[in-house]
Amino acid sequence: MGSMGRAVLWGALAALVAFACSTNVTLSGGTGGAGAGGHGGCNCPAGQVCLADLHDPGHCVDCSPGPGACPDGQYCLNDKFSCAPGCDQYSACPSPTKCDLATHQCLACLGDGDCPDGTCVAGKCVVSACVASLDCGNANLCCAGACVPHLSDPANCGACGKKCAGAPHLAASCQNGACVLGACEAGFVDCDLDASNGCEWDLAAKGPCACTPGEKHACYGGAPGTLGVGTCKAGSAVCTKSGDGWGPCVGQVVPMADLCFNGLDEDCSGKADDPPDIDGDGWNVCQGDCCETTNVCSDPKRVNPGAYEFPGNGVDDDCDGNVDDPAPPCDGALGSSSANALDYAKAMDLCQLTSESPPPSKASWGVISASFSLADGSGAPNAGARSIRGGYGSGVKPFTGKSLAVLATGFAAAHTAPNATNPDWKVFQPGSQMGTSSAAPGDWLAANNGAFPNATGCPDAPDAQAHDPVQLKLRVRVPTNARSFSFATLFYSAEYPEYVCSQFNDFFVTLLDSAFKPGPGQKPNPSDKNLAVYVDPKKNVYPLGVNLAYGDTGLFTECVNGPTGCADPSFGQGTYNGCKSTALLAGTGFDLLGSADMGGLGGCDPSNLTGGGTGWLAVRGNVKPGETIELRLAIWDVGDDVYDSLVLLDDFRWSGDPAQPGVGKRSP
């Protein structure tokens, strides 16, 4: 209708009101209009009202705008005076939705003020930048970076991207994560009792439905695409005696919620025993989820068979039927010279194992695989460069359990028993030539422009080769309730103090391959994937190594204070006063006096021990819940194959909160 037509219409309505006031004609807004002898000149059947104007003493219409003009869920069209699905200022929406008067739709929001935890986008409250469904509230999924109510959103009904398809003049909606059909649009009915073609009968054009009394007809009222799937089947209806419609559909089976373990597909989705995942954590009750709603636990998204059992929270996180049951230790009977890389994961207290592609009900977190290689992933390291120990030297005990893992650029042993054999200890200065070399990890090297990073002010490495390297690679499925991890590490090097801030500073890297993307207030993992770095308050970056003793980091503490860099005047020579103790050097071999007789330089007097160490540190990284990550732990000599370094690995832990990625002090 053009603007002139609308002006004429509204003019007529104004005149109509004036006429009604002067003649006492009542304009009823209800659905039960005047009957015989009604208002004015009308004689309207039940369900219609009388509409009169200056040129018409009265005619019958379905409705006139006003309170109660139409049944619930409908509003009165101003230009047709008939009811249509939707809302207006007189027809309220079910709480908590609101009526958009422009589109006559009930929407979750009309503006950002309706969304205390996000913004209003296309009538929906959206919390932007979600990374995983754990970022969203209960009964919400993270779909394409936005939190959506998957139990009621017809565009993401039960799962991201699952749309509810309606039919002509028959709208679909999402209820409890399942698509259902609503009522026919006003003026249309489903005469053929086939929901797949919608409400095909136009009452205004064709009149009432007509059928032969007593005739039988197949019928089905389930959502399109469900007939003949699972338990869903058609029924039959009988034409009424008056021949003006069909009786009830008898014998039909329409979708209903799936029951568990009966092998039936009651919701007709194509899968048996597949009820909705109410809390959106990736598990439903048939897959072992023991908490789908807040009636059972306070945070349902964090409770399912893929979760980690956090001790002390009073919750059966992993749905195994036991509350706060810690995983039993797994590192009590590991051989010191084991060649099985999975044993090294166990020595770090990563005890649980899983498989790459298990069925959903078996998709628990855990280590999928483990392997040893050189730094670039090729070849095999010298067997002496790795070991599992019940401690190290005489001053270091495992944080958790009975063992810890050792990787070294020389031999992974200590000077004193019981950690001096299998493999056997060799002096760290001048060190052992292990007979292996490789390129550095390619992705990490490329991210650093083809060169090894070093502490600010220290010279570049002479080449990009990894000398005497060893790498442990772990492939791990992350618990569905974990946001980060950490492990304890202690780094030793015979380069202290002579080669501090030189081009020969050995490397230990922890490279994390993860799909994690930071949400609001969260920190990204390092762009080069290496978590084994310390960033000081001035944003100076220190790779985990001997050059932590060059800056005022407070992390290189197991040593003797004194001059550093004395092997060559071109090094960043200085005096270091950050040493706190030598207790963690005792019995390791790094506590022996350095001397020319051993082939070394004899230290930088008075700091004349074979080497020094960091003390216990924590390496932390962020992860996406439920994803599969790869973790590469590698150590190698830089510039030559002498002056060995060694790293201890222990106490791997999951956390339900995001972390500050990188290296920091490890609490006892």
Residue-averaged pLDDT, rounded? 85
Note the gap between the termini.
78 Å
Inertia-based shape: elongated
| Beta-strand residue percentage | 15-25%
Number of strands: 32
The quaternary structure here is: single chain
Count up the helices: 4
**Roughly how many Å is the radius of gyration?**
37 Å
Percent of residues in helical segments?
under 10%
Judged by helices, strands and strand pairing, the structural class is: mainly beta
Low-confidence stretches: 1-40, 596-600
* Biggest sheet record: 7 strands, antiparallel
How is this structure best described in words?
The chain is mainly β and 668 residues long. Among the domains are: 152-275, no CATH class; 341-488 and 509-550 and 613-650, no CATH class. 6% of the residues lie in helices and 23% in strands. The protein contains 4 helices and 32 strands. The chain has helices spanning 3-23, 203-206, 341-347, 442-447, and strands spanning 49-53, 56-61, 74-76, 83-85, 98-100, 105-107, 119-121, 124-126, 141-143, 146-148, 170-175, 178-184, 188-189, 201-202, 216-219, 235-238, 366-373, 386-389, 404-408, 437-439, 465-477, 484-493, 507-513, 533-535, 541-543, 562-564, 574-576, 612-613, 617-622, 628-637, 645-655, 662-665. The strands form 12 sheets. Strands 18, 19, 22, 28, 29, 31 and 32 form a 7-stranded antiparallel beta sheet that branches. Strands 17, 20, 21, 23 and 30 form a 5-stranded antiparallel beta sheet that branches. Strand 11 and strand 12 form a beta hairpin. The chain is elongated, with a radius of gyration of 37 Å.
